[in-house]
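Usage example:
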Amino acid sequence: MLAAYPGKGNFVAWLWRVEFGAVALGMCAVIVRLLLREAGGLMRASRGEDWLLLAATLLTAGRVAMVPWSGQMQKDWVWVFAVACATHLAVKAFRATRVKS
Amino acid sequence: MGSATTSTYVEKVVYLLLPIGIAFMIIMGLLCLMLLIKMWRNEINLCSLLEEANGQASMSRFQLLIFTLVVAVGVFLSILHTLTLPDIPNSVLILLGISASTYATGKAITFTRPEGLIRQRSNPPPPPPPPPANPSQEPR
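Running the assembly step on the lines above writes:
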């Protein structure tokens, strides 16, 4: 294995890449497991504005993940996400006001 | 004479830096492995990442977690590919800011209500046990 990395600096970079990648993958696995476990509670507690925020989040996060292949994001994506977040907060604040009265 | 001494000194420093770097990476790897094992076994509770103060799951926290995860994985992959710190686009930074602001504002709205602070019980508490029988009042 070390024959492919004859230089010491290359070996350190290879070790760093393997370690960093393994930790990142492990962290992703832990977070995905947490999301799957909490999905039921999240669905039960969600209302209409929460579903809007979820849809906007998944779409925008998917576009962010596609940046290396699809190029930089346009400003329209940012505006759409901002409007979705503002709507979510406005409806949530309205519901809180209604509950108070 | 002077340049030869300097090159010898640099060689010694490089010779020392290599084992120090490898030892540092091994220690950090072991620490990360220990933390991952503890999180996987639920010895470190991660449920509060998605829970509000009243115990209900929160979509604001969920979207912040998703955005942070996606951007962090992207930066990780870019660093692994180029071994340099990448330039994060302005649009991604703006999206992260909007996401964090939404979380903070949603938390503020939730905390304005008393029911947003009181933790709700999923199961009702068990009834209290009956009082012990008094032997002096037993029916004859």
